[in-house]
Amino acid sequence: MPTLSTLAMQTRKAGLRLLTSIVGMLHSLLTIHTFRTSKGTGNDNVASETEYLEGITAQRALDVIQKFLDDNPLAITGDGDAISSGAIMLATAVKLSQQSRKLPTSFKLPIKVKPFSIPRRGGSHTDIFLNRYRGNKVAVKRVRTYTSDWGLSPEEKEAVRHDIFVACLQWRQLRHQNILPLHGIIGLAGAAYVIPWRERGNIRYYINNASPEPDTSQRMKWMSDIANGLLFLHKNHRFHGNLRSEKILISDDGVAQLTDLEMSSFTKYWSEHRIQGKYLGIRWMAPEVLKGANRSPSSDVFSFGLVCIEIFTGNVPFPQVICTEACRQMMNGERPDRPETMPDECWHLVKQCLDVRSLSQTYHGYVRSPINASVSIESGEVGSLG
């Protein structure tokens, strides 16, 4: 006679298969609509699939998918059925959100920012407010570029806003110790999202202000943390696209975590209306991206190499020159000098990141830190060398 645990497992698998089937049907429906929209129906009296999905059906579907992903945090990266089911569900949620302009109900948080509040911190294009959510400190990060008057039409502003929220929707599903969690969004003017508050700030700020100063072992550990986070993204067919020290925060227990994931998808709006290095992080961009190519896992690896130099210098790449001159030097094949305190093995890794730029070739199968942590590139596993 089956045990209760066996029955529960069978019930869960049956529910997963049913939900996957439903999601598959939705995904097919959205694909059909996309094709029909691109071709045109030629009949204004025929209601499109999107018009049907824009109602309560779309909202319910998004809520069901998000509930499953919240209850099964490893669904995106699990084994067997879970990996395909989670990937299909997330892809469907993204497409459904894009076409219906809706978001999961649980994604919108009941957090208020008082009018005329003064930001506690700020980035090149964001204001960061300290708030609380479920008893914990959180950062409410508002994208300032959206509220700036760059001559965008109301439709373009709404497109930027929803692009940011869709990016957040994808980011929220990525669970890893070196990825900063995303709680959700709030209805602040423009676009604002909620993440855990990190008192220590970004990695460069912490390096320059910590007492005592981080030693070589700690800096190498942070390199390993960042590599782990990037490998997790790349293994799951994603990339950061805007990696630099401001996008790496230090947790209370000293772990480096990547933040602002999936945000490179809407930088076209910024670059079209304000071409300035401080807004686009161009000092960390790979030469091919500076020349107009799309960002990729390979460009992530290049940026990672520059971040490693930053970790040992506490300064930006080519600090002695302005952004445009730094870009010119980078495109001409020049690279930052080796930091005086960087060990040989780290410098060897950095040189390969800036030249080879293939994860499997760059790391030769492993990235090792002084605490015997390792990352296997071929298998994507994180383990210990013991």
From TrEMBL:
Molecular function terms from GO: ATP binding; protein serine/threonine kinase activity
InterPro entries: Kinase-like_dom_sf, Prot_kinase_dom, Ser-Thr/Tyr_kinase_cat_dom, Ser/Thr_Kinases-Pseudokinases
PROSITE patterns: PROTEIN_KINASE_DOM (PS50011)
A UniProt-annotated Pfam family: PK_Tyr_Ser-Thr
Domain (Protein kinase) ranges: 114-375
Top-level taxon of origin: Eukaryota
Protein name: Protein kinase domain-containing protein
Annotated source species: Cerrena zonata
